[in-house]
């Protein structure tokens, strides 16, 4: 059985199995357990009649720890309590937070950055007695064995530098390449004896189109196709006089033009020989080319025509159809970027899933420029982090199924 082909069915089956107590290799989302909340919506930590309420405070300030101490249900002066918190993040990264008294609470000294997912160790001292608590507060984290990661088709890469291409979007249509259009007339005026090509017919170079009897010599001679292409127009019937007129039009569509409208706001950024990727408006494969001509006059709508010569030997581009084009105008080397395919949403954040061993956890991203497959990362991810690039929706589904929370 092809594992990738059956991935949706496999995913639903495996995640459904997680309703009980799944083994490690089934995909185990790791979230905070239920706990007692205090009057400030924090986690209550008790030892006898002494208690600390610990909360991550985020209202109007960057996330920080705040704590309230009580004994026998009565508030204690925060200046009488020594408090420190150690956070152990995925990958054994340690964050130390010390607290200072402020008003009626203790305030942590450092930012509690996202994700708020860590093992927590709390140490307090009051009235010459030490207190301690340890607990896990995980969010956006799951564990999947290598065998299941392979079955789910999880692909990973290491985050690092990339080239971000800046592009301008233009719109236009496909037209015949006039270098590949031929108007066919008789060399000598005379009577048309026979016609051998019909409109819409494909002809080869040198193929007989018509036979004409010269009015002067009374000798007959052939009119042959000067190029290979399609007969788009025939104004010739047996018995008629050629009368110096055009008898056939032949168009070779193996090469076509994309004529693109460049409006004033983009004009300064578009240059001759700029690289272009053209996509049919109806869908289909894209075709690459370069701008070979920029008109010196603007049209009635103030746009300037830009022309791209395109190879159409496969016949995929039909003259008259509309296209969208991405014109590359600049390249930027950025120190850190991720694949666009890796991006998912978590709460109000755009995230990727970092991999450390068999565990996967969200990384909230601050994003910059984006182009093609790549998106620049300005913050939230360390260079060198391995992250999931393919089928990351598996992790999102597993974590969402577990009822991901943001409790502290």
Biggest sheet layout: 9 strands, antiparallel
Instruction: Based on Cα principal axes, name the global outline.
Output: rod-shaped
Total DSSP E strands: 31
Question: Could you name the CATH class of the domain at 33-137?
Answer: Mainly Beta
Using only C-alpha atoms, the radius of gyration works out to 36 Å
What number is the mean pLDDT? 90
Q: CATH topology of the domain at 33-137, anyone?
A: Immunoglobulin-like
**CA(first)-CA(last) distance:** 44 Å
Low-confidence stretches: 1-10, 15-26
What class, by secondary structure content?
A: mainly beta
Secondary structure tally, helices:
4
* Residue share in helix: under 10%
Description:
The structure is a single chain. Among the domains are: about 35-135, Sandwich (Immunoglobulin-like); about 165-175 and about 255-330, Elongation Factor Tu (Ef-tu), domain 3; about 180-250, OB fold (Dihydrolipoamide Acetyltransferase, E2P). About 5% of the residues lie in helices and about 55% in strands. It contains four helices and 31 strands. The chain has helices spanning about 5-15, 145-150, 265, 395-400, and strands at about 30, 45, 50-55, 65-70, 75, 80-90, 95-100, 105-110, 120-125, 130-135, 140-145, 155-160, 160-175, 180-185, 190-195, 200-205, 210-215, 220-225, 230-235, 245-250, 255-260, 275-280, 285-300, 305-310, 320-340, 345, 350-355, 360-365, 365-370, 375-380, 385-390. Strands 2, 3, 4, 5, 6, 7, 8, 9 and 10 form a nine-stranded antiparallel beta sheet that branches. It is rod-shaped.
């Amino acid at each position: 059985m092809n594992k990738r082909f059956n991935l949706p069915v496999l995913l639903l089956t495996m995640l459904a199995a997680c309703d009980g107590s799944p083994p490690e290799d089934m995909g185990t989302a790791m979230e905070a357990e239920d706990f007692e909340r205090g009057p400030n919506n924090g986690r209550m930590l008790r030892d006898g009649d002494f208690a600390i309420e610990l909360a991550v405070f985020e209202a109007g300030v960057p996330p920080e720890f705040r704590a309230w101490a009580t004994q026998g249900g009565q508030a204690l002066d925060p200046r009488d309590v020594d408090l420190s918190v150690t956070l152990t993040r995925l990958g054994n990264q340690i964050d130390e937070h010390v607290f200072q008294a402020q008003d009626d609470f203790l305030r942590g000294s450092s930012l509690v950055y996202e994700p708020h997912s860590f093992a927590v160790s709390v140490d307090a001292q009051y009235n010459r007695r030490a207190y301690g608590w340890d607990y896990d507060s995980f969010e956006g984290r799951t564990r999947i064995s290598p065998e299941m990661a392979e079955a789910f088709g999880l692909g990973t890469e290491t985050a690092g530098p990339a080239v971000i291409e800046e592009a301008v979007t233009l719109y236009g249509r496909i037209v015949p390449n006039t270098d590949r259009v031929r108007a066919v007339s008789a060399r000598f005026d005379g009577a048309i004896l026979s016609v051998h090509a019909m409109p819409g017919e494909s002809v080869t170079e040198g193929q007989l189109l018509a036979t004409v009897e010269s009015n002067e010599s009374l000798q007959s001679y052939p009119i042959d196709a000067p190029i290979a292409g399609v007969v788009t127009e025939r104004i010739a019937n047996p018995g008629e006089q050629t009368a110096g007129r055009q008898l056939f039009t032949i168009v070779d569509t193996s090469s076509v033009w994309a004529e693109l409208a460049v409006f004033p706001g983009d004009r300064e950024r578009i240059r001759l020989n700029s690289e272009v990727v053209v996509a049919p408006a109806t869908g289909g494969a894209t075709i690459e080319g370069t701008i070979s001509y920029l008109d010196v006059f603007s049209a009635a709508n103030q746009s300037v025509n830009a022309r791209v010569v395109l190879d159409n030997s496969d016949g995929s581009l039909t003259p008259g159809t509309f296209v969208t084009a991405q014109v590359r105008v600049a390249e930027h080397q950025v120190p850190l970027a991720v694949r666009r395919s890796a991006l998912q949403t978590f709460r109000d954040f755009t995230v990727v899933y970092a991999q450390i061993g068999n565990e996967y956890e969200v990384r909230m991203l601050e994003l910059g420029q984006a182009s093609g497959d790549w998106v620049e990362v300005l913050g939230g991810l360390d260079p060198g982090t391995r992250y999931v690039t393919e089928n990351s929706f598996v992790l999102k589904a597993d974590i969402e199924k577990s009822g991901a929370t943001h409790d502290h």
